[in-house]
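Example record used in the benchmark description.
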Amino acid sequence: MITRYCTPPMAEIWSEATRYARWLDVELAACEAMEAAGIVPAGTAAEVRGKVVLNADRINEIENVTRHDVIAFLTHVEEQAGEPARWLHLGLTSSDVLDTAFAMQMRSAATLVQDSLRDLIAACRDRAELYQNTPIMGRTHGIHAEPTSLGLVFASWAAELDRDDERLTAAITRLSFGKISGAVGNYANLEPAIEAHALSLLGLSPEPVATQVIPRDRHAEFFCALGMIAGTAERVAVNLRLFQRTEVSELFEPFGKGQKGSSAMPHKRNPILAENITGLARTVRSYVSPALENMVLWHERDISHSSVERMIAPDATSLCEFLLYRLAKVIAGIEVDEVRIRANMEITHGLVFSEAVLLALVRSGQPRQKAYEAVQRCAMAARAGQGTFFDLLSRDPLISELLPPRELDQLFDLNHHLRHVPTILERVLPKE
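Model output (structure tokens):
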């Protein structure tokens, strides 16, 4: 597990101690259900729980001999609980314990990821509201397109993250299934009612049709959701890196007092946080493929999925939680150079209003293609330094005949492009 990036709660979820504690929870929930059904002596689960103090080192020591983790665990429990422990694992198979406990761990880890995701959404919404009236150059293909609102940039990220949150919520719901149905999932030595009772104690639902394991499409969906969250985070991070380029210099990630950008060049201020997020996002997405591969198991079960999950589950959840935490801090502390934003908008001297001129000509009766050619002719001449776009339009015979200077001047209206920003933001910002 990549513990460097774990918060203490996430590290605890994936610790050996927690894994064994969840195994015990599953065994005792099944035992309690059997007590209620009159199969096991009343009070057995409580007696076992009162006697057992799990020791991961001792379990691992036993496993070195048994070469079987669940048997080692049960042996350790029996060492402490004595005779009552014989009622544990009655009719269960190892995967009943492993998969049900794993669902509990995954659900807990997913909840931490979701907390960080929602912090990032809140940060983006705050910036969207703060900068809703700040014009900025909209770009397509990296080229100046038309003016837009900086608030909409943040709102677009918030909206996509909202969808990530919805996908994660759905994945958590489908993760929250366990199984206590025996060696091939057909309740050969159990009753479905025992499973239902035990899983209700753990806050899980019964897997409708299990084999020896819970089908891995549930887990694959979760890792796909994490991969898409990482994709959104990288989209944001890459755009922040583009905004911070020297040639753009409109938005900057936080830069602490005393921070250094380069060992050789004192002037450097590099977007290292956004670059780090980009790299971590790639790593999270790399876990999607093995999660999908885990869906394919032989007959009722093999263990090809097990070694994969021990790696990807703690790593993917830890990295995803961390990169979301880091990105939320970046967004909350973003620096905006509004002077530079305005200067960049004026670089093309009005070329970005070309569509408004085109549409005005069409409305005045010109065929669209003829109007397009006229506006493009003036735009290319302006790019070549033959005059300002406005002056060239004013002197063009076709255009000047239909659009006198006063009417033409009204087409170079920045506010025209921002008039629907409040309506768009209402779709993203929470209602009061």
